[in-house]
Amino acid sequence: MLAITVCIVSSCEKHDDILYFKSKCVAELNGQTLIDQTPFNIGPNSINTPSLIASEYTAEFYSSLSNERGGTPLYAVKIILFVNNEWEYLTKPQIIKYVKIGESDDELASWEYTKYCFDNKISYATILSYPVYESEIVKEGEFEITSYDKEKRTYNGTFTLHFSKGTLHGEFSTNLN
What we know:
Blueprint: H1 2-10, E1 12-15, E2 18-21, E3 24-29, E4 32-36, E5 51-54, E6 58-65, E7 75-82, E8 94-97, H2 110-119, E9 124-129, E10 134-137, E11 140-149, E12 154-163, E13 166-175
Antiparallel strand pairs: 1-2, 3-4, 3-13, 5-6, 6-7, 7-9, 8-11, 9-10, 11-12, 12-13
């Protein structure tokens, strides 16, 4: 029990007398600083962000950004990467570009576009704006892992996403242990 407690506390840091997981994302949008760092919690309903789910040919990054640590989310970022070569996203910046589907100039609904991209292994990103729950497809962006340790499951990186409200620049560090 003591070993588990030490392990859990070592994966946390304290701010204003509150324990937070070490994983965090800090972003800037139109001069406003946003942060994602989850307060320490354990339970079946706990969701800790930012998160990165990494495998040989895919990576899924999630971040829920607010004005303050543990605050009410303003934007939820979701980036899904597909690569042709094993672990390629760890060594090369990944470009996210909107892909026009079909002949029509009409844009697909967000869920239709993301399903098409997922089925056809096309990298994409979405940004969900709160409190209206409006999901938007990112037209272009970049995601880069700047350092990593696969054994310790730690990843650091940056992203830039262009969408209707401006350009979101972010830096993140994830500690998946």
